[in-house]
Protein 1
Amino acid sequence: VLADHLGDSLASESAATGVNYDWWQEFAAEATGLGTTFSPSIIGFAAVLDNISGLLDARSRVAPIAAALGLYLAGWTFLSGGILDRYARQRPIRAHGFFAASGVYFFRFVRLAVIAGLIYWWLFGYVHPWLFDEQFVNLTRGMNVERSAFLIRAFFYVIFGTLLVGANLIVDYAKVRIVVEDRHSALGALSAAIRFIRNHFGQVIALFALNSLTFLALLAAWAIFAPGVGNAGLSMWIAFLVAQMYVIARLLLKLQFIASQTALFQANLAHSSYTSAPVPAWPDSPAAEAIHS
């Protein structure tokens, strides 16, 4: 889309060597679909701030991004079972065991995801509008001090963010209980997760705080080293590699969240390296079965 719009114009040369703001404004005015995401918020640390703002303000995403997000969530749902099983056992289960575990827990996690989706739909569809479209408007009507209005909105952000974090923690520990205790019921796992969080609230929050501080440290590092707009050539590829390193660090931190939550649960309600399910084994092929017989 960008190449078609730029063509061989003089604007293409200035765009390749920095930022052509006039052309960017012209492109943004005509963009549709995925092209609408080409905005200044994609540069460096601004992308992180835009994602946080989009989450708290419940902004919808364009169809191509929503589809990509759906594929990502489906893939992560499949892999989560193998990841959790590997962490719970604390010993290698090899590729066949990993993917077998992923397959075993996939449909259980899908059922859990449906329930979690309804919870998030209620939060974004009803709670968010009630807070920001009704209560915020009522409280700030006639208010002429911008700082006071900002503090009220920030307070509502904290409330909504707390609800999101709470829902996320419940779903995370429900996954842990499904894998470690070989649970089949998504509702039963959610109920058990709520009980665990309630009975070990201090430990759960302390662990979440430590993981969150690590996440904030990563964001701080990214804010410092995030590349801005550079020239075409070597600097462009260096910026691309730095950005991919940040993505990898985010994924590693996500694995750290999963591993630490699994360890906390096992330390309180099970012994180390314990899962009630047997080690998953990939089914043998018909040829292997014939040889065995």
Protein 2
Amino acid sequence: MKTLTGVGSTPLAGVGTARWHRPEADLTLPDRPDPSAVDADVELARFVDARDAARAGIREARDRAAERVGEEEAAVFEAHEQFLDDPELVGDIDDAIGEGTPAEHAVSDRFAAAIEQFEGLDGPMAERADDLRDVRDRLLRALLNADSDAPADLDGPADLADLPNGTVLLAERLTPSDTAELDPESIAGIVTVAGGRTAHAAIIARSLSIPAVVGVGDALREIESRTDLLVDGTDGRVVVDPDADARATAATDAASPVPERVSTVDGTSIEVAANVGSEAEIAPAAERGADGIGLFRTEFLFYDRETPPTEAEQYAAVTAALSAFPDDRVVVRTLDVGGDKQVPYLDLSDESNPFLGRHGIRLSLDAHRALFETQLR
């Protein structure tokens, strides 16, 4: 057996068959023409259409992620949509097109510069470069008429939502959009050449309980499709052609929920409460033995609608949480929107640094006082 090492991202183990995901195969740019041969008006119109298509795709991805992994994880796609309106990114692309650069080359050039800038930062900020890659690839697919859902062979782009059972997905890196499409029932693991534990794709993989090892490096490229792999997301190991003992160990390492309350050896009780971002997450939390809800994020009630929820709708949602945990604590967070969490019908301001701006309780005690009073009732 050969063992590769990386960074364990999801502390679970899985065994399956390798399949490479290479979405870049259908994003090859055509040769760059002479600027004098480029019709700037046509290219600007193409870029506008691509932004509209990318925006629609991002919103679909956000809705899908919110349903499967919760509103907090899905919020990354709201940040992706903001990239499409970033005045520096969009302005520079418009300028490049006006100077005779085709839309796809202008997008590729400008995003490459932004990605390089992020990767030059320290810590988790460097991993935000993958979010830029996600948005760039959406724009390029629209401009190049590339179908990201087209079925393909093992080494090409694929429909990630419909992979064979027992697939261990290999990739240079995965974007948040890629990861949100995966079906945890069919995916035995994820292994990537690049990436880190705090990247949004890794966070979504953990939310989906998919074993994952990231940042394995160039050695991963030597692994061919159809190779049997063991993915150990706890120790950050990838075992090539694991033997029977290794497979058995991986099977026994799978953690099972403990429904009883837990305590330390000296008898100190430890509360293990759920983090809930939608009504759909309440029942699974109760079934897996959560000791109540430590954070009930009520903003999910305000998304994907044209008007705020009524008092009766909010009452029903909170009652559902209380009913699932009649003897436990349920901590309800009142409406936390604004900044990076936009709700169109609330006419929230667009701030250059939303994390330091007016959102959450600041708005509830001022502009959203009526909504706040309804929620408190």
Protein 3
Amino acid sequence: IFQGFNKEKFTTINAAHEECDVNYLINLEKKEAVIEVAEVIGIKYLTEEQKNPHITTTVGLGKLISFLLDKGIEHFIIGLGGSATNDCGIGMLSELGVQFTDKNGNICEHGIDDLMKINQIDLRFIDEKFKNAKFTIISDVNSPLYGQKGATYVYSKQKGLKEEDFLEVDEVVENFAKLVSKELGKDY
């Protein structure tokens, strides 16, 4: 399906903040890359002890996207599923220039623990190449971000979140979504 793409490796960090080598596909002529989220921040690479969505991060995915933007990639095809995180992408976006801060101005970029502290979103430092990039997302599910059928309730247990934390974390995700909508003037 991805004819003309070359398989390459990149050194980044996994969801548990450990250095790792990941594979991706690239076609420099088309300025396209294919990334499998599970390959970069996948739950399959973590031990049971490392499965902790309070601190797991999407930073490694952001590092790969940033690297590819610098190589001239303009279109990203990203396969979702199998991630070890529930951070709403704040780690990834932090690597691309979005600044998330708490009420004291401290940077927030790792896991649910930081997600729940976010008070402000600063878009002034976004990588210009990121602003102009196109993203095609491949997913085999269609579920809302929050609520009883949302990401926290459906997927967080396998990522290491305790059921008694579902309601609180789901509210954190909903509040973050509302903050993003307010900041961007658009409800995604």
